[in-house]
User: Fold these one by one.
Assistant:
Number 1:
Amino acid sequence: AVRLVESGGDSVQTGESLRLSCTASGFTLGETDVAWYRRQPGNECELVSSISVEGSTDYTDSVKGRFTISQDNARNTVYLRMNSLKPEDTAIYYCGAKDSDRPTPDCYNHMDYWGKGTLVTVSS
């Protein structure tokens, strides 16, 4: 079965770090574009970061310099390293994967595959 599973969410203090993992089964993650999204209560979905099949990365402005997306093809996993966390980073984080022949959508549930999310809570 095709699955994407996020993990690594936790409750941390401002300034601390977390590493989220997005692990695929049933398909090869490295053959897709992968993106991390987040959704805060009552807010719209936000595209946080993406990594293409070619390895190109992109970040939303609010996380540039603090978050790093990376891929481990041997583990069929994409990571999101989050440093210097702020309370406004609090959200459920979702990963999604899609074929590279179409644009990255605004929300994870419009990707070809997506997970159930992992909760990140940052307190001040």
Number 2:
Amino acid sequence: QVQLVESGGGLAQAGGSLRLSCAASGPTFSRATMGWFRQAPGKEREFVAAISLSGGSSIQADSVKGRFTISRDNAKNTVYLQMNSLKPEDTAVYYCAAKSWAIMTTARSYDYWGQGTQVTVSS
């Protein structure tokens, strides 16, 4: 079992930055692939980024590539999402998720989810 708690959301201006954190509890964090997803009002949940067990591999959605960076600290049981050059279209609830084995970009592939943190970007 993995329990996930996101933090770091809030209000930012376009062009600004935020860093999201996801603290995980449970002994299996270091064996879990971690992902970030987001969901804007009236839209489906979409993939943002994911990182492998060791942190050696990661992928990002095209919409955030070059602006967002995912990282993890297995010693702290925490995964991060550094968001730079924010745009109003980045406004959404951001969710942290965990799964076993390979990196996947589909939400249904993930077994554990946090409660989400709101990110609002003003123009």
Number 3:
Amino acid sequence: QVHLVESGGGLVQSGGSLRLSCTAYGRYLSSYTMAWFRQTPGKEREFIAAMAWASGKRYYAVAVEERFTIARDTTKTTMYLQMNSLEPEDTAVYYCAATSDGYSPDDRQYGLWGRGTQVTVSS
């Protein structure tokens, strides 16, 4: 079983940057697609970005593709989300997720989740 742990959240001013990390423990990730989602109170989880671990193919939500970059370090089984030009609307809890069923922006396809890390962007 893969165990996911996020880190790197915090408070940043509008226009600033943060880098989130998600480390996977317990299994090789070669057959997994890893993803980032975010959620604000009262709203559904929103897809942000994903990466097929073996190929490195990346997928982005339109809302963030010009500002966010997903990356991986295969030696550390760690996935990153570099977030630039942050806006107050990016404030949310950011979750790392994994699926062995291939890419999807639908959070229901992801059976493995981290506990989340809070990102707060002040105006």
Number 4:
Amino acid sequence: QVQLVESGGGLVQAGGSLRLSCAASGRTIRPYRMGWFRQAPGREREFVAAISWSGGNTYYADSVKGRFTISRDNAKNTVYLQMNSLKPEDTAVYYCAAATVPFTTYNIANYGSWGQGTQVTVSS
């Protein structure tokens, strides 16, 4: 099973940027579609972005489309989430996960091997 560790979160002002990283160990992530999710206080965990195993296909929630970019480096066993034009409503704990079902995107039930999360706080 792959182990995932997120990093790169922090406190940023509205309009700022952050780059999250998700480092994998235990096995290669190359065969897996990878996803980023987030959970704000009092809310359910929600889909943010996903990327195919090759990086050739990416998928985004409407709320982040045009502002966030997901990417991956299979040689480094790492997935990234570049977040620009951050808004206070982006404040949440961000998690990465490896898909357990081929060709899945937003369905949280189709992901396993969750990381511990990294906190992103956007001040107004």
